[in-house]
Specification:
This protein has about 200 residues and is α/β, with parallel strands linked by helices. It is built from 8 helices and 6 strands; from the N terminus they run αβαβββααβαβααα. The relative contact order is 0.22.
């Protein structure tokens, strides 16, 4: 059984977690890109997320999705879309119903990706639409992670510049972690008994 919600104080008391595996940044097609696609194609469940450079004033122009993160259990790949685009082999993973891509608010992320390359999204799982089945009311990634995995994740890099010439180590860790925890949450939920929220509880 999971708690239905969690307080900021309860989250603060938890241990900080981040992606423990290898992080690979891809900014061009080539050998590294091909290896990434080969690895991802073998996975049944991937953590999924995207990042966009934040805009703080109406005058600031958004260039759209800057980063696509796909994570397996031991490797996370960060695709710098404004440098490498969304090549067909990568788009084919996003269109493959046999490879689950697990994230939060995935519809918005997919719409951003479809502006870069046309593909028919298949195999996407949005945790925000599912957690109620396990009695969870909170929908943010930070809160869901705390409730389901019992750890906290840092959001310090969320509003950083995702179009920077070089992504910092902190940015890489943040981006990989956000995708990875979605995969881990999904697997933990699948192994747990459901306890759906009733309409009264959900209100």
């Amino acid at each position: 059984m999971f708690a239905s919600s969690i307080t900021p104080e309860e989250i603060a008391a938890l241990q900080l977690a981040s992606f423990p595996g290898e992080i690979v940044v891809i900014d061009a097609e080539g050998e590294a890109f091909d290896k990434a696609v080969a690895y991802l194609k073998k996975q049944k469940v991937l953590g999924f997320d995207t990042e966009t450079r934040p805009t703080f004033t109406p005058e600031q122009h958004s260039n759209g999705t800057a980063l696509l993160q796909l994570s397996g259990s031991g490797k996370a790949f960060l695709f710098r879309l404004q440098k490498c685009g969304l090549p067909r082999p990568l788009a084919s993973i996003l269109a493959n119903p046999a490879i689950l891509k697990v994230g939060a608010a995935t519809l918005d992320d997919v719409k951003g990706l479809q502006k870069i390359a046309k593909f028919a999204p298949k195999g996407f799982v949005d945790l925000q639409n599912q957690v109620w089945e396990w009695g969870i009311r909170d929908k943010s990634v930070k809160k869901m992670t705390a409730i389901i995995l019992g750890v906290k994740i840092s959001k310090a890099q969320q509003l950083s510049n995702w179009e920077a010439e070089k992504l910092s180590e902190s940015q890489q860790k943040y981006a990989a972690t956000d995708a990875w925890v979605c995969r881990e949450m999904y697997l933990k939920l699948q192994a747990s008994e459901k306890n759906p929220l009733t309409p009264e509880k959900n209100g």
